[in-house]
Design brief:
- By secondary structure, this protein is α/β, with parallel strands linked by helices.
- It has one domain: Rossmann fold, CATH 3.40.50.1820.
- Helix content is about 40%, strand content about 15%.
- It has ten helices and seven strands.
- Strands 1-3-2-4-5-6-7 form a seven-stranded mixed sheet, sandwiched between helices.
- α4 packs antiparallel against α7 and α5 packs antiparallel against α6.
- The protein is globular and about 50 Å long.
C-alpha cells in the first residue's frame, strides 16, 4: 500500500467564490510539522491557495518502511502537491523544495527557501556551513534521549534571536501537538541533512528564487548568501536582521514583507 502524506489544502480567502488563486506549497523542517506555519497562514491565504504538508514520520504523516533520503522525501511531497505551485520550504523543507525545482522544474513556478542551504555540512569546498561534528553529536544523543535532543535542537534554532524565549516557547508548545515524531524520521532526517549536496544543481534552477536568511542563524551561516549569488546569480537573497533560524516565527512582519516583495516583483501576487 502506497504511503500518502497528510496534507491540508486551504482555500484562498481573498478571491471571490469560483475564482482561482495561485497555488503555494509549504514544507516544514526537521523535527516539526505543518503547524509551524500557523502564524503566517492568514496572510498567505489572502492571495494563495495553500497546501501544507507533514513530512513522512512527522505530524500526522505515516513513516515509510524503506529508504528515507532526499529524493524519496521530494517524491512523496510531489505526490500530494499541486501540479504547479510556488514552493516555500524551511530548513530541510527548503532542501526538498530546492531539489524539486532541480529535478522536476515543471512542477515549481517559484522557489522560496528559508534558512536553507544546498549543503548543510562544511568541507574544503564549502566553508559556509555547519561543522559535521555538531550534527554527529546530535545524532549520537538522539539515540540516547531523542525527546531531550529534539528540544535542544529546537532551542539551537532560536539561539541569539532577540525573541529567543518566545520562539522556544512556541516551538515547544507545538512540537508534540500531533504526538511524537517517528524515531526513524528523526534519525534519517539528520542523515539527509548530513549527506545532501545540491551545489551542482543551483545553476540549473530556472524559476524565480528567493533565499531568506537570518542574520544570527546558528545552523545556516548568513555568509552563505554571497556563495549562493555566485552559483545562482539571478536568485534574490534577503537577510532578516536579528533573526535566527526561524524568521517566519521570530520576525513575522519582516519575513512577510520580504516574501510579498518577491512575489509582487515576479507577478505571483
Amino acid at each position: 500500500m502506497a504511503l500518502t502524506l497528510y496534507h491540508d489544502i486551504y482555500r484562498c480567502t481573498g478571491v471571490a467564490e469560483g475564482d482561482s488563486a495561485p497555488e503555494m506549497v509549504l514544507v516544514h523542517g526537521w523535527g516539526l510539522h505543518g503547524v509551524v506555519w500557523d502564524n503566517i497562514m492568514p496572510t498567505l491565504l489572502e492571495k494563495f491557495q495553500v497546501t501544507v504538508i507533514d513530512l513522512p514520520g512527522f505530524g500526522r504523516s505515516p513513516i515509510p518502511g524503506g529508504e528515507y533520503d532526499l529524493n524519496y522525501l521530494t517524491e512523496q511531497v510531489l505526490a500530494v502537491a499541486p501540479e504547479n505551485a510556488i514552493w516555500l520550504g524551511w530548513s530541510l523543507g527548503g532542501m526538498i523544495a530546492l531539489n524539486a525545482s532541480i529535478r522536476f522544474p515543471e512542477r515549481v513556478s517559484g522557489l522560496i527557501t528559508v534558512a536553507t542551504t544546498p549543503k548543510f555540512i562544511a568541507d574544503d569546498d564549502w566553508s559556509q556551513a555547519l561543522n559535521g561534528d555538531v550534527l554527529s553529536r546530535f545524532r549520537a544523543l538522539l539515540l540516547e534521549d531523542w525527546e531531550g535532543t529534539l528540544i535542544r535542537f529546537l532551542a539551537l534554532q532560536c539561539k541569539d534571536s532577540t525573541t529567543i524565549k518566545e520562539d522556544v516557547r512556541f516551538l515547544k508548545e507545538i512540537v508534540f501537538f500531533h504526538g511524537h515524531p517517528s524515531s526513524k524520521a528523526l534519525r534519517c532526517g539528520l542523515d539527509v541533512l548530513k549527506s545532501v549536496d545540491l551545489l551542482d544543481g543551483l545553476a540549473g534552477v530556472q524559476v524565480p528564487t528567493l533565499y531568506v536568511l537570518g542574520e544570527k542563524d546558528n545552523l545556516v551561516p548568513v555568509g552563505i548568501g554571497r556563495e549562493l549569488k555566485k552559483l545562482q546569480p539571478d536568485a534574490k537573497v534577503s537577510v532578516i536582521k536579528g533573526a535566527s533560524h526561524v524568521p517566519f516565527i521570530s520576525d513575522q512582519e519582516a519575513f512577510l514583507t520580504v516574501i510579498d516583495d518577491f512575489l509582487m516583483e515576479h507577478h505571483f501576487a
